[in-house]
Amino acid sequence: MAVISAMWNEIEARVGALLAALVGAGEAETVISIFLAVRNDAAKRATIDTVVRLKMSEADQTRFQAIMKEVGRRYDERNIVVHGAWGISREFPDAILWCDIRETTMLHVEMMTVTEDRRTATLLASQRKIMVYRAADFQAIEDRITATYDRLREFSKPIMERGFGTRAKIDLPPTLLRPQ
Questions:
Q1: In this predicted structure, what is the pLDDT of residue 1?
Q2: Where are the domains of the chain?
C-alpha cells in the first residue's frame, strides 16, 4: 500500500515538472508552487488543463489528455488503496480485507439503531461488500501505475528537454518506482 501511495507522488512530480517545462525555466518555480498549492482535485486538473491549452500544440494536447485519462484511472485505484478501511481475517490468512470507509462509518451508525432481529442481516449485507486483496492484486495495481508513469515520462521527455535544455536531468533515477 505504501508503495502505491509513493508511486503516485512520482506521477504528480512528473506532471509538475512538465508544467514547469511548458512555461519555461524562468517561471518554473511559480508554476510548481501554484500546482502544489492547489489541493482540490478539480482545481488542480483545471490548472493543468489551462497550462496545457496555452502551451501545447493541439496534437500534443490530444496525446496528453489520453495519458491524463489513464492517470485518472490510476488515481481512482490509488484512492481505493489509500482511503479504504483495511482489516484481516483468519479465514483469509494470505490476504487483507478492504471496504469503503464511508460504508463502514454508516454501518457503525446503523448498528447503534438497528433492531436486534435485524443485526445479523445488516452485518451480513455489509460483509458482502468487503473485497479481498492478495499480493498479486497489489502487484497488478503497481504495474498499472508504473505503465502509466512510463507513458507520461516518454511523452514529457522531449517537452522537458525543450524547456530545460538537453543537458537537464530529465530521467532522474526513479527512487520510488520499482526497478525494472
A1: 82
A2: 2-83+135-164, 96-133
> Residue 131 phi/psi, 5° resolution?
-105, 145
Cell numbers 446503523 correspond to what residue?
110
Cell of 118: 435485524
Bridge pairing between strands 96-99 and 85-87: antiparallel
7-56 pLDDT, tens digit each: 888 899 999 999 999 999 889 899 999 999 999 989 999 999 999 999 99
The Cα–Cα gap between 179 and 85 comes to 29
- Side chain identity at residue 6, one-letter code: A
Q: Within 10 Å of residue 162's Cβ, how many Cβ atoms?
A: 13
Joined together, the cell numbers standing for residue 102 give: 464511508
Hey, what's the cell of 57?
500544440
150 grid coordinates: 512510463
**8 A C-beta contact, residue 6 and residue 176:** yes
The torsion angles phi and psi of 91, rounded to 5 degrees, stand at -70, -20
